[in-house]
Amino acid sequence: MDKPDGISSTALGTLVKRKTGYKKIGHLGTLDPFASGVLILAVGEATKLMPLIEKRTKTYVVTVRWGVETDTLDCLGQVTRTMAHNVTRDDIIKIIPDFLGVQSQIPPLYSAVHVDGVRAYQRMRQGDDDFSIPARSVMIHSIDLLSAAGDAATLSIVCETGTYIRSLVRDMAAALGTVGHALTLRRTADGAIDETHLTGERDLCLGMPLHPMDSLLADFPRITLSVDQEVHFRQGRSLALPPPSWDTQGPILAYGTGGLLGYGVCDDDGVFKPKRGLF
């Protein structure tokens, strides 16, 4: 879906559930309330596949405002600091290489990261800011400067799951000798799903177009089971298969006469063990 700004990802999922009648809906890759763009929703049995497709490459376009910091590192927060600056286009281009590749990044205090069993943003909203969040490794593939004028700059960023764009803005501002926050943020692609696939909120009353459950799983190995093997899979029984032609210890999709059945794992001896069925 094309998530609008001003609504949380969870609230949008609830809205879709109410308008479409689907009983089970999950979302992949949470977008902050101030952000918009690609939000993948899994419906019905497809929610069982969510663990397989949580890690994907994402593309964002963010507009940064230099010289002003907020407590949430976005446009919805309270201003906590201002700094004079003279950030130029050349300055931004010069520091970009320092933020590519594997980076050590500290998530925002207003984030869904758990701290002692409680989400960080919940602690902050309760007035408890006496905690810290450890840095984590993230991967940033590219940062392209689209425009820069005055206090603002717009960047296109390609990164892996787990990257906080608000934290990246904070860290880039520090490298430029100032502070900053994300003024707008839009996710333009999530894996193979880009803006050409999007459905808007107004389209829900006309019916939400659904993509096949395995449309995001093209890179996963797959096997086709015979009728007897399908029965065993549905019963959760291991299957003796020919030696696998792939080199993986990860999930393998299992197909039967009616399409995708679920997934499992295969050991070196060709024993396939069902892990999750879509029935």
Could you explain how this protein is built, in words?
- By secondary structure, this protein is α+β, with helices and mostly antiparallel strands.
- The protein folds into three domains: 2-55 and 192-215, Pseudouridine synthase, CATH 3.30.2350; 57-190, 2-Layer Sandwich (Pseudouridine synthase), CATH 3.30.2350; 220-277, Archaeosine Trna-guanine Transglycosylase, Chain: A, domain 4, CATH 2.30.130.10.
- 16% of the residues lie in helices and 36% in strands.
- The strands form five sheets. Strands 1, 3, 5, 8, 11, 12, 13 and 14 form an eight-stranded mixed sheet that branches. A five-stranded mixed sheet has the order 15-17-18-19-16, with helices on one face. A two-stranded antiparallel sheet has the order 2-4.
- A hairpin with an 8-residue loop joins strand 6 and strand 7 (79-82).
- The longest helix has 12 residues, at 9-20.
- It is elongated, with a radius of gyration of 22 Å.
- It starts with a strand and ends with a strand.
- 28% of the residues are buried.
- The mean pLDDT is 89.
How are the elements arranged and paired?
Elements: E1 2-3, H1 9-20, E2 25-28, E3 36-38, E4 40-43, E5 57-66, E6 68-70, E7 79-82, H2 89-95, E8 101-105, E9 114-115, E10 118-119, H3 120-125, E11 136-149, E12 152-160, H4 165-175, E13 180-190, E14 193-194, E15 222-224, H5 227-234, E16 239-240, E17 252-256, E18 259-266, E19 271-277
Parallel strand pairs: 3-13, 15-17
Antiparallel strand pairs: 1-3, 2-4, 5-12, 5-13, 6-7, 8-11, 9-10, 11-12, 13-14, 16-19, 17-18, 18-19
